């Protein structure tokens, strides 16, 4: 899928929370959307998902403005996992993942490919959880199930809003390893810069709703940019095994921008 964000902007509460973002999303890889709180990360994801009409510009999926696509067609092409709020839904894991098949169901409720649920559970390493009550799962298990639900939509574009929130280190690494190797064009809003540096092939850095930088983490996540955007002093080192950037912050010199 060709995904192009062309001078897109969204105005909320009397101000531009996303303002003139212009970028091409590399296909088949993980792109991280970075920036401090209030930078516009979630709003940008909602614009790309077609859930929020742009105040100006456009998000194009294969040259078609995403927000103009029929809802069912859009749901077959784009899956958005927003930040999780509740785990009390009285459903089994299989029932939660089956919700991802809604765009494909006929008016009589029949799914033309019921095996898609099993494929999605297997792909997300959640097959063993299928008969568990969703509300009993750990945070990492719930995130795998949410990923499986999104994969059941068979999307060409996967959007994740803070997918590592509330996960321990092992669960964060396992989740992003899985997402980075899916082969699906994926865009994830992330707070942890070191996770983004370790797993993303492409990053977008936002500040005040504007795109400050875009490119590979090696080229983008430099001390000067971190100071400009986050107001922190940092050294960028090289991981001895992966060669990826490792960011070491200096707490005593951190100041709010």
Description:
- The chain has about 260 residues and is an alpha/beta fold.
- It has a single domain (about 5-255), classed as Rossmann fold.
- It is about 30% helix and about 25% strand.
- It contains nine helices and twelve strands.
- The chain has helices at about 40-50, 70-75, 95-100, 115-125, 140-150, 170-180, 195-200, 215-220, 225-230; strands spanning about 5-10, 15-25, 30-35, 55-60, 65, 80, 155-160, 185-190, 200-205, 210-215, 235-240, 245-250.
- Strands 6-7-8-3-9-10 form a six-stranded mixed β-sheet, with helices on both faces. A four-stranded antiparallel β-sheet has the order 2-1-4-5.
- The mean pLDDT is about 90.
Which secondary structure elements does this structure contain, and how are they paired or packed?
Blueprint: E1 3-12, E2 15-25, E3 30-34, H1 41-49, E4 56-61, E5 64-65, H2 71-77, E6 78-81, H3 93-98, H4 115-123, H5 139-152, E7 157-161, H6 169-180, E8 185-189, H7 193-199, E9 202-207, E10 210-215, H8 217-220, H9 223-230, E11 234-238, E12 245-249
Parallel strand pairs: 3-8, 3-9, 6-7, 7-8
Antiparallel strand pairs: 1-2, 1-4, 4-5, 9-10, 11-12
Helix pairs in contact: 4-5
Q: What is the count of β-strands? A: 12
Q: Could you name the CATH topology?
A: Rossmann fold
Mean pLDDT: 91
**CA-based gyration radius:** 19 Å
Summarize the helix and strand pattern as letters: EEEHEEHEHHHEHEHEEHHEE
Q: Tell me the name of the CATH class.
A: Alpha Beta
Count of alpha/pi helices:
9
| Major beta-sheet overview | 6 strands, mixed
Number of domains: 1
Strand order of the largest sheet: 6-7-8-3-9-10
- The N- and C-terminal alpha carbons lie at a distance of 37 Å
């Amino acid at each position: 899928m060709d995904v192009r964000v062309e001078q897109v902007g969204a105005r909320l509460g009397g101000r531009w929370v996303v303002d003139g973002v212009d970028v091409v999303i590399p296909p088949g890889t993980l792109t991280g959307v970075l920036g401090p709180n209030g930078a516009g990360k979630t709003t940008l994801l909602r614009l790309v998902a077609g859930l929020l009409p742009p105040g100006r510009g456009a998000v194009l999926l294969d040259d078609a403005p995403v927000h103009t696509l029929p809802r069912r067609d859009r749901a077959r092409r784009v899956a958005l996992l927003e930040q999780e709020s509740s785990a009390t839904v009285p459903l089994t894991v299989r029932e939660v993942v089956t919700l991802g098949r809604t765009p494909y169901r006929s008016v009589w409720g029949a799914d033309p490919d019921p095996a898609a649920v099993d494929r999605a559970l297997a792909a997300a390493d959640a097959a063993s959880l299928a008969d568990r009550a969703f509300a009993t799962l750990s945070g990492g298990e719930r995130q795998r199930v949410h990923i499986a639900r999104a994969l059941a939509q068979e999307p060409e574009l996967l959007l994740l809003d803070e997918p590592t929130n509330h996960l321990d280190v092992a669960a964060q690494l396992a989740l992003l390893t899985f997402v980075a190797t899916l082969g699906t064009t994926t865009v994830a809003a992330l707070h942890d810069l070191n996770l983004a540096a370790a797993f993303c092939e492409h990053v977008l850095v936002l500040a005040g709703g504007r795109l400050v930088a875009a490119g590979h983490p090696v080229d983008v996540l430099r001390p000067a940019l971190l100071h400009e955007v986050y107001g922190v002093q940092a050294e960028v080192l090289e991981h001895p095994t992966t060669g990826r950037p490792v960011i070491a912050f200096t707490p005593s010199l951190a100041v709010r921008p």
